[in-house]
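Q: What would this chain look like folded?
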Amino acid sequence: MTVLPLWWDEASGTPPLGPDRHALTTDTEVDVCVVGAGYTGLWTAYYLLEADPSLQVLVLEQERAGFGASGRNGGWVSALYPVSPARLARDHGEAAARDQHAA
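A: My prediction, written as structure tokens:
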């Protein structure tokens, strides 16, 4: 069974952005090669081209764009630090604990 990102139409199983791309089977020369077409990879390619439209940018993805954590709501960023301030102070000193809390 193919696992599709949540936002794709599960009834049809068809991605909204067109058909699968063919595998890269020949050597190619580019200015920048981005490995991974998740949020980070796609935004990297986008902003590189915005900064310099003359660049040749290639994005490589083993599966489909957004296949990994970007397509599964698994690429989380949290402001919660998994260690208490008391533990940080005990292990690294009070100044380090204050700095971490402030950050």
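DSSP finds four helices and two strands in the chain.
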